[in-house]
Amino acid sequence: MSYLRKRLAAERPSLGAVTLLLATVLYIVLTGNQRLWHQVADLVGWSTPAGIATFASFFLFLVSLFTLILAPATHRRVFKPLAITLLLIVATVSWFQDTYGTIVDRDMIRSALTTDALEARELLTAGFAAHMILFWLLPSAAIVWIRIEHPSGLRLAMRTAVIMLVSAIALVATVWSGYRNFSVLARDHGELKMLVNPTYAIYSAIDVMSAGAPSGPSELIPVGEDATRTATPASKPRVVVLVLGETARADHFQLNGYTRSTNPKLEVERVLNFPDVSSCGTSTAVSVPCIFSSFGRDAFDTDDSRRHENLLHVLDRTGVDVLWRDNNTGCKGVCAGFEYESFRKANDTRFCDADGCIDEIMLEGLERRILASDRDLFIVLHQAGSHGPAYYRRYPESFSVYTPECRSDSPEACSTQELINSYDNSIRYTDYFLSRVIDLLRDLSPRRDAAMLYVSDHGESLGENGLFLHGLPYAIAPRVQTHVPMVLWLDESFHAGSVGARACLQQRASTSLSHDNVFHTLLGLFDVQSRDHTLALDVVAPCVESLIAESERFLQDPLTPDPAAGAVH
User: Fold this and answer.
1) pLDDT tens-place string over residues 255-265
2) Global confidence as pTM
3) Which of 54, 379, 454, 553 is buried most, with the most CB atoms less than 10 Å from its CB?
4) Which residues, including other chains, have CB under 8 Å from residue 450's CB and lie 6 or more apart?
5) What angle is formed at CA 100 by the lines to CA 95 and CA 102, rounded to 5 degrees?
């Protein structure tokens, strides 16, 4: 055995520390940054000497930068573990960047940290495994197998200093010689830095980890402390259901002009459709907290939002009970301290299998829960919706209307039409789910004043321009990832459900709206008054107030016509 061990040791190849460092850097720059190089090539072109020079300068810049960063770690007990860890990060990031067109930034890392086993399993495909074997396991095995030739401590320090000096000089020279082209790329295409693998992913991870848990006092910063409910003559408790959609694209809703019949149920319902709504983020981890925040997208910060109260706290303060039912990966901290029910792993064979449950599971026992209390109630139903990449798992087989479907967890393995077919089937199932919510609320109308608001958290890319899924930084995300559907259904017992208010709402529905409107609209549906309730962002309240004012004016003087109404023909 000792002879064999000596023989194997003698046959192991050896490389100098600096040589192995440069080989590792070149491997990372070449294999882990393919999307970056495609992007740079598209921007600078190959047809001119200037374009080729810019491309070469960018390549030399990255090689010099990575060499400078890694050079101090060439000690044999440090370099191998570090290199293997870096290759793991590089291979993982390159898979998602090259395959789905995503960028691993803060929001993507937050989403990964809040996902569960069911969702993660859909991303761990055979293609991913093959990619990791080829681009991580095999090169890592090579690094382990190679012996590093190390000079004495002083000579190693001198060589390290020399390689760092050469790298620094090359870095400065590259930037200096190509400053004009670099500055143009940096100014006009800031997204390029997000594609540099692994530096941007590591930077984003450090940023997320450094935020950590909220510091300071454990109590949340109050929102809507002055909130009160307007006294109303309503004799019935009020129930408002927010259906929080997942990954639905507005342009795949029949209500918004899509040519396919993806909304056959809603099409015949008396709903208000909002065709121009923008999401707060491109991931669930951002959009869900933002929807319930009072700050709006421009002022919203995911970390800071955890320190503040949200919509649920304001409603609770005014006497509204809160119930959150979830068939997704949780409420992202929004519902902490409130009644929460997860159906993600429910044991009901009518709606569930080993891969999870379809959304109808959330309606089980809901009517009994509503009628169990005489208090006003706000319910959130957080859908699995159209979450990818396994769209075909989001609906029962009876909803396989558009075929052939993509029945794979790897969207890139299907044709574009197959992918769209399975996605549209999931939208059609959401349409059915919403109709069931409406039916449930309509049946309760003798005993409850009811309303339903549906809005998706973000959209989805279905292969356009080589992009799949979602989660791109908002500044560069395509419209399909931020343009979301929103639908409102109101019982006629609501002021806003009357004919006069609906005419006003139809006009407001044609304007550009966003997730910013949801917080204020839901407060309005419960007649909440507060400094934090902005009427201009409330879709419903202005129409109701106008109707009430007109009714009061008519009761005071029924013979005086409304000058704004014009002549009656």
Assistant:
1) 999 999 999 99
2) 0.87
3) 454
4) 238, 239, 240, 241, 441, 442, 444, 491, 493
5) 90
